[in-house]
Amino acid sequence: MAMKALSKATIYQVAQRAGVSIATVSRALRDSDLVTPETRERVHAAARELQFTPSRPARSLAEGRHAANGIVFPDLVGPYYAEVVLGYEATAGSLGSSVLILATNGRPDAEAAVRELAGRVDGLTVMGRTVGDDVVRGIASTGLPMVLLARDPVDGVDTVRAGNTNTAKALAEHLLGHGHRTITFLGDPDGSSDVAGRFAGVRAALAGTDALLSLVRGNGLDLDSGRTAARQILADRPDAVVCANDEAALGVLLAAEEAGLDVPRDLAVTGWDDLLAARFAGLTTVRQPMRELGATAARWLNRRINEPPLENTAARRRILATEVVIRRSCGVHEEVHP
Amino acid sequence: MAMKALSKATIYQVAQRAGVSIATVSRALRDSDLVTPETRERVHAAARELQFTPSRPARSLAEGRHAANGIVFPDLVGPYYAEVVLGYEATAGSLGSSVLILATNGRPDAEAAVRELAGRVDGLTVMGRTVGDDVVRGIASTGLPMVLLARDPVDGVDTVRAGNTNTAKALAEHLLGHGHRTITFLGDPDGSSDVAGRFAGVRAALAGTDALLSLVRGNGLDLDSGRTAARQILADRPDAVVCANDEAALGVLLAAEEAGLDVPRDLAVTGWDDLLAARFAGLTTVRQPMRELGATAARWLNRRINEPPLENTAARRRILATEVVIRRSCGVHEEVHP
DNA sequence: TTGAAAGCGATACCAC
DNA sequence: GTGGTATCGCTTTCAA
Q: Start and end of every HTH lacI-type domain (chains A, B) (predicted)?
């Protein structure tokens, strides 16, 4: 039987086999027009026979670029980040760039991991509160193109995010319209700038009204944290609980059910993200363009990477629109739902 | 010849600054014990001052490895893949490897993209029906360590998957227990081996009974495809619709509601995956260890990568356990739900 | 312990 | 058009 030809072929072997120099191989393989169709074909044949694939590190070293970019996010748990990352990958891929991902989640060495990642890419997207501003500045100052995603801006770095405050204000006003007067916000404004913006919006809506706003930070934005926090919140019998995201809100829904409370009659609940589950739970929430957030970041990063060094434009900011999605959980509406 | 504005420092500059050779810098920075604590410190200081970070391509070229591995999946849409990829990233990261992702989704050049990815990593995990067996074999034959995830095995390549057939059989038997006799399976067995396994399980359960099984392939496994397919299915008034995944099942639920059908009284519906939404939709489904699937693949791949070439063990197979999760949608149970 | 130098595998400039 | 070769930045013998 034939021997397993696993040692990858190099450009030298292809050159030898085709009877040309490595320079010619390089040209022929990248379809340079400085090669005779004849030799071009000969080289391609040799390459094919040897199953030649150029070494990526060698290429990168010679070209001075990685042809890859990276995205750092806190976690991939929950549909929110997943959608954003997917949008990012799809767009980056179509722009001809490979994508490296890094979830800083429970990583103790997040900062080091991010720096290491920065060394593997032509540009980096940093999402949410994964690493401090100092790290972002440090990396940006090396000249590596960067884009911030769903995160407070840093001087000189592009930022893409989804609208929080205005939409949160609209949501809270809708709640007021239902007659709710004691409102609890569940989420930690110090935990992420998104949450901070949402809280600010709610507060703005209640300012100058007779409604009462209280804040419960909770332990996180997942279902169980929401459920746990809700047990405490429900003891105070607020009219409504505005949650920082859908998962927490779903947890509150579960806790309310346990407590024998009817939503929305006894308690109104709202979330944020419009997850698939929100639809089936009848949860009033806010929809944000997750896929588009990722796609925009990828597009911007690509632009920065290919930008002529001297035309370096000022940092961009963009806030993508979000919208309130009214369902059953925010209060009793005219029509009766089955 | 343009001047690089922010050229990163090289090992040469560090060497010069520390007054040593590049060899010494290399050793000092990788904490070799062949260096005086004294010079070690001097080198570290110089590196720090110059903000030196070794060039990844240069390192990879010299070491002959990437310190990275990749995972290919069809799509990241829907919580299923996201969870698997997260589990993968977390484990790979903790094993000291960077992770490259590739969604073949709507990519016309999926095969080329996978090959290109293969050139950037020390090992590759291929999930589902992203590329053909020929491509898998081709890559595996170059000696690149691989792991197959949720996909039919290929000779000589490790495979990790979740149980389908037996659990599907149990699920179908439960349905029979409810008295359902006309059952429609929604999903394309030719579209993925997972779906094929689930269908096989259902068929096995009905074999030898008086129950009738029909197959509707549908156009996909997302909510809208399920909803659309359901409109056709419902015309036949089956007792139960067994869906290949939760998203399709949720679509069926929506269509049933539109048609004025009561689930489970008029129609039983089951899904697969146990998404968060399934819980709130009261959907009977099957839970699979998504996170663990990814983690196992990452662990196996790591083992292969670091395996002494000659101890090359036979291809491994593992099927992780799945379990039926009974909720309301499969039929009327004793207890009355609110 | 440290330094000199030989790779690693491409790209691209400069002659011919 | 092609070939020779310097270069990219680092790791790793091999000597000293």
A: 9-63
- b/e sequence A324-334, b meaning 16+ C-beta within 10 Å: bbebbbbbeee
- To the nearest whole Å, the CA of A204 is away from the closest chain B CA by 32
> Listing from the earlier edge strand, what are the strands of the sheet with A146-149?
A317-320, A158-162, A146-149, A124-127, A68-73, A98-103, B98-103, B68-73, B124-127, B146-149, B158-162, B317-320
Cα dist from B20 to B26, B27, B51, B191, whole Å: 10, 11, 17, 61
Q: Which nucleotides of C are covered by protein (CB under 7 A)?
A: 1-5, 7-13
Give per-residue pLDDT as tens, B159-206: 999 999 999 999 999 999 999 999 999 999 998 899 999 999 999 999
3-state secondary structure of A48: helix
Can B2-62 and B165-287+323-337 be said to share one CATH topology? no
* Nucleic strand D within 7 A of Cβ A23: yes
pLDDT for the residue numbered B4 = 34
Q: Which of these CATH numbers, 3.10.20.30, 3.50.50.60, 3.40.50.2300, 3.40.50.2000, describes B165-287+323-337?
A: 3.40.50.2300
**What pTM was computed for the model?**
0.92
- Here the tokens at position A174 are 């809708």
Q: Which fold has domain B68-163+290-306?
A: Rossmann fold (3.40.50)
- Contact residues on chain B for A327, CB-CB shorter than 8 A: none
Strand C within 7 A of A52 CB: yes
